[in-house]
Amino acid sequence: MPRAFITxxxxxxGQHLAEFLHGxxxxxxxMVKGQNNPRVAGLIEEMPWVETVSGDLAxxxxxxxxxxxxxxxxxxxxxxxxxxxxSFTQPELTxxxxxxGVLRMLEAIRMVGGTYNNPIRFYQASSSEMFGKxxxxxxxxxxxxxxxxxxxxxKVFGHDITVNYRESYGLYACSGILFNHEGPxxxxxxxxxxxxxxxxxxxxGLQHELVMGTLDTKRDWGYAGDYVKAMxxxxxxxxxxxxxxxxxxxxxxxxxxxxxxxxxxIEDWERYVRRDPKxxxxxxxxxxxxxxxxxxxxxxxxxxxxxxxxxxxxxxxxLALESAKSARRLGG
Length: 332
Ligand code: GDP
Known about the structure:
Layout: E1 3-7, H1 12-23, E2 27-32, H2 38-46, E3 51-54, H3 60-70, E4 74-77, H4 84-89, H5 91-113, E5 121-127, H6 150-169, E6 172-178, E7 181-182, H7 191-203, E8 210-212, E9 218-219, E10 222-223, H8 224-234, E11 243-245, E12 251-252, H9 253-263, E13 273-275, H10 293-299, H11 307-330
Parallel strand pairs: 1-2, 1-4, 2-3, 4-5, 5-6, 6-11, 7-10, 8-13
Antiparallel strand pairs: 9-12
The structure holds guanosine-5'-diphosphate.
Guanosine-5'-diphosphate binds near residues 84, 189, 212, 279 and 281.
């Protein structure tokens, strides 16, 4: 059976990818950091077939030891400080994990797998945030980068160093430039899940307002479950290459809010929404829209869940989750 090693296994994409690879017959290993990491119990409960391996993207020896133990065919580097807003307040940590962490993993792969004819295939989670203040629309694999946050800058380094190790040492290393991808497993700090969860709670009478940053920015939002398939497809090609993964449609945050409220039958959504500049960022990414023609042509990939279905799925999930929580509270 092929063996996959995933960093960021407790995050949204790590979980989707683990499920997907397990379904394909892989032995799945997930790297977990820290001592008594509280997210591990939940992971093992949901996916008992994942084997957890201790390691940290800030610690090269731990990565070498993890790879020596796992002997993976494929490494998926999804671990990162992934929240743009946090990257402004903890920029050095972001550079270390999201940026230098990639370099450490590539070095560990060289050390464990040899340099040339290295059998380990590497996937780097690159991000549309690298396009930042976009130089062209829509964005493709050839669009120049102009990051607008420490997160974006760290991802550019991770991307460039992946290309560099591929070109310097012949590693089979690919970057997927994934546009925003969401779903019920998204953390509550991201705007989609923050909105769908608040809408569910407002509908159930558990919350009275939704406090937001800008409603004007535009994102190309897809479904995480669709996007992890593209990660795997990239590592099954003859030659390693980079691919943009996106839906090709963009929506404002305002539309996200409006559609989410409409999903629970609330049309006068503005009554519930308050704007607070504390959610504004020192620099913004105003517009993202990706052109994934290359992935569609070469990988045969295409998204299955559109924006409306994504919102439906997320609102339904949050309604079920929040009703169950309040039923448990009432039941004592
Ligand atoms: P990002 O594209 O990686 O930054 O993903 P996010 O989901 O964190 O943010 C998407 C967009 O929503 C950004 O332009 C944010 O500024 C905007 N936004 C507006 N209000 C909020 C909010 O309350 N929380 C978050 N996370 N984003 C918000």
